[in-house]
Design brief:
There is one protein chain. Strands 1, 2, 3, 4, 5, 6, 13, 14, 15, 16, 17 and 18 form a 12-stranded mixed sheet that branches. A 4-stranded mixed sheet has the order 19-21-22-20. Helix content is 35%, strand content 18%. It has 3 domains: 302 residues, Rossmann fold, CATH 3.40.50; 116 residues, Domain 2, N(10)-formyltetrahydrofolate synthetase (2-Layer Sandwich); 81 residues, Formyltetrahydrofolate synthetase, domain 3 (Roll). The protein is an alpha/beta fold. The longest helix is centred in the first third of the chain and has 21 residues. It contains 19 helices and 24 strands.
């Protein structure tokens, strides 16, 4: 079978105006970026208010392994499958980051015959949204330094500047830096650092804001530093919110593209789920719910991270009520969770599949806590055997959940018809009784404990006195009602990426907490997770190049 990029390159794409017409979007509401991409105007999105709201379907997964789970591929395949069986459906995805594209994970446009296109554009610079977010973030950093240089009228304590810089690339050398070296004209030397753009608070703000007014209000609330008396200094104090909003004006508008089967998809925003809140923009999701009868969206990494944040942050903030959840699993990943080495995954091993199903079972139990019905999608690989597939189906039946084999990677929408029919039935059943995991009124530490104990199954949360004191100070300052955004390894329920399966008897160490006052949550950094990832020993970038015809090779 051809590679993902070869399949995408051979796609028969329709002009984006035809895709918009499928949704009754007039041409004057489309802002084209070439023939096959367009933004949707803010005025048109505002005019959608008052329309009937469609059904919201979340696609999540078991904990990721090097064998791959195919969550985005399944999201696209399910969206195509729903359209194939006559359901008016839109897909809502996040934008890929350049970091993983050139690192280890690769792109995020799906795979095989379940992709969004143009794949190369989507995985690289796309419509420039990430560049706008990076620029707005670093403009604020520059204004902080400039204010200090020209007299520091706000009384910023140089030891308490909390605003870091960002870059959309994995670069471990920039995690901790010293800036303003080189003499008087360069400012006052101090320690600083970089995060990856997808961990920026501005990325989170763009994905949670409802319009430009809300965007500027949230940008103004960003806390960038503290005075010696520990009172906060905000972006609004620096008069930075207006210029930042100008930089983000176009980026706030959702991007419309299409699948290989010419079905519509919004791709907008891209916070990571292991270090940020892991969901596409509220603007895109809410607009899609007004334009289609069913909306299929995804949340990053496993359900312990992406789904939990989708429910506890995005749905809580935006007033969304999901109707069904799809949990993606693969036989290979289940075998890895059952203790099989990556090199041995090609051999049948039903016992390992059954053992690895403990990870899947934990995610099923967790989803049930939020009151939303679930179905398991077994993302098919050619090496899977009938006995292994039946073992997963039998395990899920015991938990009262149906497991459906999906062959969308090889067969496109024809391989998800059964899954689509079951998902539509679940979404239409009206049985969803969604509720977040914890109440706003709980203390911040109690919210951390709720996620740690009820989702990760930790026995306790370990946090130094400095962390607990910081949480108490934020509560005293009026931030106690905020939800928590857990930054933790995606590979395990614990903070140890090597502990697969469904471990118990562990603790959750909290290393640091950060207040994202503009986004409206507390970031809780656990274990050894980094907000600026590094590249692997052999990064994907080593294999990406242009061929003799000027076409990209090695992107996946």
């Amino acid at each position: 079978m051809a590679s993902d990029i070869e399949i995408a390159r051979a796609a028969s794409m329709k002009p984006i105006q035809e895709i918009g017409a499928r949704l009754d979007i007039p041409e004057d509401a489309l802002l084209p970026y070439g023939r096959t991409k367009a933004k949707i105007s803010a005025d048109y999105i505002e005019a959608l208010n008052g329309r009937k709201t469609g059904k919201l379907i979340l696609v999540t997964a078991i904990n990721p392994t090097p064998a791959g789970e195919g969550k985005t591929t399944t999201t696209v395949g399910l969206g195509d499958g729903l359209n194939r069986i006559g359901k008016n459906t839109m897909i809502c995805l996040r934008e890929p980051s350049l970091g993983p594209c050139f690192g280890m994970k690769g792109g995020a446009a799906g795979g095989g015959h379940a992709q969004v296109v143009p794949m190369e554009d989507i995985n690289l610079h796309f419509t420039g949204d990430f560049h706008a977010i990076t620029s707005a973030h670093n403009l604020l950093a520059a204004l902080i330094e400039n204010h200090i240089y020209w007299g520091n009228d706000l009384g910023i304590d140089l030891r308490r500047v909390t605003w870091r810089r960002v870059l959309d690339m994995n670069d471990r050398a920039l995690r901790e830096i010293v800036c303003s070296l080189g003499g008087v004209t360069n400012g006052f030397p101090r320690e600083g650092g970089f995060d990856i753009t997808v961990a920026s608070e501005i990325m989170a703000i763009l994905c949670l804001a409802t319009d430009l007014r809300d965007l500027q209000e949230r940008l103004g609330r960003i806390i960038v530093a503290y005075r010696r008396d520990r009172t906060a200094i905000t972006a609004r104090d620096l008069e930075a919110d207006g210029a930042m909003t100008v930089l983000l004006k176009e980026a706030m508008q959702p991007n419309l593209v299409q699948t290989l089967e010419n079905n519509p998809a919004f791709i907008h925003g891209g916070p990571f789920a292991n270090i940020a809140h892991g969901c596409n923009s509220v603007v895109a999701t809410q607009a899609a719910l007004k334009l289609a009868d069913y909306v299929v969206t995804e949340a990053g990494f496993g359900a312990d991270l992406g789904a939990e944040k989708f429910f506890d942050i995005k749905c809580r903030k935006a007033g969304l009520h999901p109707d069904a959840v799809v949990i993606v699993a693969t036989i290979k990943a289940l075998k890895m969770n059952g203790g099989v080495a990556k090199d041995d995954l090609g051999s049948e091993n039903v016992d390992a599949v059954v053992k690895g199903c403990a990870n899947l079972g934990r995610h099923i139990e967790n989803i049930k806590q939020f009151g939303v019905p679930a179905v398991v999608a077994i993302n098919h690989f050619t090496a899977d055997t009938e006995a292994e597939v039946q073992a997963v189906k039998a395990y899920c039946t015991e938990l009262g959940v149906e497991a459906v084999l999906a062959t969308h990677w090889a067969d496109g929408s024809a391989g998800t018809q059964e899954l689509a029919a079951h998902v539509a039935e679940l979404a239409d059943s009206g049985v969803a009784q969604f509720a977040p995991l914890y109440d706003d009124s709980l203390s911040l530490f109690s919210k951390i404990e709720a996620v740690a104990k009820r989702i990760y199954r930790a026995d306790e949360v370990l946090a130094d006195k400095s962390v607990r004191d910081q949480l108490h100070r934020w509560e005293e300052d009026g931030f106690g009602h905020l939800p928590v955004c857990m930054a933790k390894t995606q590979y395990s329920f614990t903070t140890d990426p090597q502990r697969r399966g469904a471990p118990t008897g562990h603790s959750l160490p909290v290393r640091e907490v950060r207040l994202s006052a503009g986004a409206g949550f507390i970031v809780v950094i656990c274990g050894e997770i980094m907000t600026m990832p590094g590249l692997p020993r052999v990064p994907s970038a080593n294999h990406i190049r242009l061929d003799d015809q000027g076409q990209i090779e090695g992107l996946f």
